[in-house]
Design goal:
This is Gfo/Idh/MocA family oxidoreductase. By secondary structure, the protein is α/β, with parallel strands linked by helices. It has ten helices and 17 strands. Helix 5 links the parallel strand 5 and strand 6. Bound molecules: nicotinamide-adenine-dinucleotide.
């Protein structure tokens, strides 16, 4: 790594791989003070079309089939791991062993055991990392966190979250890796609720115990063609079993006494990506919906208007001013990933964990683990404590 160039290696050129690449490219524009020009060195994907796209569309200097070649390249300073969940552990542990700081997508592996192995490998190597908990970076969430942490909402009593998606609502959509326990781990628990649970911990604090119910509404799907793992894969007709939950609902208790509920579905008819989080306190509350990324509903005791006021995010809220000049002009989903890329690169340059960490990834996976235990026996389960470099606490470092 020279003073101004940082060599990027990408593992997997799917939806997230393309988005990470755009995010690195946007850094000099939106975070000029970092003083870095990302050099897209090499991308790995076993699918030839994906490799072709990496070079011709995304701008990588070369593309390879085997991810080890990315880790072995001395020009690669940082690595993005955007593979399906079942590959996370092998790739992340190898990246840590190679001494390469990495930015990995959530959920971090299939099970808490994968997340723990990744976390421990990173701690042994003494690396900084980033995990794809992108919703944290929405300026409205940053504003909500300030209101909660400053005490303006009073004592937090309860949190309500809901992550309702339609991405698997077609019963004839193919049986990709996302529906197999061996390759995905859990269903919506890891895929969607890990985001919501991370947000709840980021805004309010550590979740200490949980109980859950789950259901699979579409229990068979047509198998995709040989070797294809992408969600756009063509189905072949023969149907196979869906092995993880389409829907889950959680009750939980925070360590400090607040309580919460959160549910999620991937097979909704109606909502597209309706990811909401509401935080209620004794003197006010905030409500956010990802589909209205730039708005925060706020109700505070003593405000002039009774009930909820819509706050449109504005310069001063999170990193909004880096993207738009004034309230009402919207930021988008890609921008959240640019902020995540900036936090990752700044973490690497400063040697300080600023971005969501592998400890945060393990913390979310530990709640999912407790929820899965509850799905099996119907009981409440304590969540294993994570003592590593979590960045959800009150004194979390910021960029
Ligand atoms: N942060 C978010 O909001 C968010 C959103 C979507 C997905 N994700 C996560 O990102 C990860 C990837 O999801 P996606 O939607 O980009 O998947 P995708 O299906 O679009 O892409 C997966 C890519 O992995 C490649 N791949 C398969 N085997 C490989 C191997 N051995 N080596 C290298 N590449 C290989 C495939 O060819 C494909 O290009 C998952 O963990 C998912 O949970 C996160």
């Amino acid at each position: 790594m020279t003073a101004d160039t940082i060599g990027v290696g990408l593992v997997s050129v799917g939806w997230m791989g393309r988005l990470h690449s755009r995010a690195y490219r946007a850094l000099p524009d939106h975070f000029p003070e970092l003083g870095v020009r990302p050099r897209l060195v090499v991308a790995a994907d076993p699918v030839p079309e994906a490799r072709d796209q990496a070079v011709t569309r995304l701008g990588y200097e070369r593309a390879v089939a085997d991810f080890h070649e990315v880790l072995d390249d001395p020009a690669v300073d940082v690595v993005s791991i955007c593979s399906p969940n079942f590959l996370h552990r092998e790739m992340a542990v190898a990246a840590a062993a190679a001494g390469k700081p990495f930015w990995i997508e959530k959920p971090m592996g299939r099970y808490a055991s994968d997340s723990r192995a990744i976390h421990d490998a990173v701690e042994r190597a003494g690396l900084v990392t980033s995990v794809g908990f992108n919703y944290r970076h929405a300026p409205a969430i940053q504003r909500a966190r300030e209101l909660v942490r400053s005490g303006r909402l009073g004592r937090i009593t309860n949190v309500r979250g809901s992550l309702l998606a339609d991405y698997s609502s077609d019963p004839d959509a193919p049986l990709t890796w996302r529906f197999e326990r061996e390759r995905a781990g859990s269903g919506v628990l890891g895929d969607l609720l890990s985001h919501g649970l991370d947000l709840a911990q980021y805004l309010v604090g550590r979740i200490a115990s949980v109980t859950a119910l789950g259901e699979t509404f579409i229990d068979t799907r047509p198998r995709p063609g040989q070797g294809i793992v992408d969600r756009t894969a063509a189905a072949t007709g023969e149907r196979g079993a869906v092995e993880n939950e389409d829907y889950a609902a959680l009750l939980f208790r925070f360590e400090d006494g607040a309580v919460g509920t959160m549910d999620s579905s991937r097979v909704m008819r109606g909502p597209h990506a309706e990811y909401t989080l509401e935080v209620y306190g004794t003197t006010g509350s905030v409500r956010w919906d990802f589909q209205r990324l730039n708005e925060l509903q706020v109700a505070l005791d003593g405000q002039e208007v009774d009930g909820y006021v819509t706050h449109f995010v504005a310069p001063g809220d999170g990193h909004f001013a880096r993207f738009q000049p004034g309230a009402g002009t919207a930021m988008g989903y890609d921008d959240l990933k640019t902020i995540e890329a900036a936090q990752f690169v700044a973490s690497v340059l400063r040697g300080e964990q600023l971005a969501p960490s592998v400890a945060d990834g393990l913390a979310a996976a530990s709640i999912v683990e407790a929820a899965e235990a509850s799905l099996a026996d119907g009981a409440w389960h304590d969540v294993a404590r994570v003592d590593g470099r979590v960045t959800t606490g009150a004194a979390a470092p910021v960029l």
